Amino acid sequence: MLSLTEMTSAASDGSEPQGSLAGETLGRLWTPWRQEYVGSVPAPGCFLCALAAAGPEDDQANLVVHRQPDVLVVLNRFPYNPGHLLVAPHVHSGDLVSLEPGRRDGLFALVQRATDVLGRVYQPAGFNVGMNLGRVAGAGVPDHLHVHIVPRWAGDTNFMTVSAETRILPETLDQTFRKLRPFFN
Questions:
Q1: 84 tagged catalytic
Q2: Which one from 66, 84, 146, 148 is the annotated catalytic residue?
Q3: How far is CA 26 from the centre of its chain?
Q4: In CA terms, which of 41, 55, 105, 155 is 20 to 30 Å from 8?
């Protein structure tokens, strides 16, 4: 078995390294197209702050499904599944630990409500609910906390994402918005 150093150096020439840290049965899925996302520099400005500052008259165009004085719910423009929501406080901070208790409670109360709405509208078999804290953890907006809520169904992922770099979504963002908005009003 190769050491980590040998595996890393073997892969640096573009060839697939032999062996694995967890044993010979561990498979690898090489996804070099993700480096563009992983290594990208975020665009200036914060889209979540811009959405919070925009007026309610722009909610449909901005895909803001629901807003409260300190928290908003927005459709993810690049959803993993239909109904993929982001719930974000209006405060611009990426630090969960220092989030004031009142804002924290409001954020997670709305996460709970949004999960309930998604369950009633889409009837998924489960949910992924989580936060990516920091760029290395996958946060596309590391300086503004937000919670992802992704409805899940058995068999909702397939070969298309890997082989064709494509997600299969059975409805448009506008259709999703129109389905969800009434349940928050």
A1: no
A2: 146
A3: 27
A4: 41
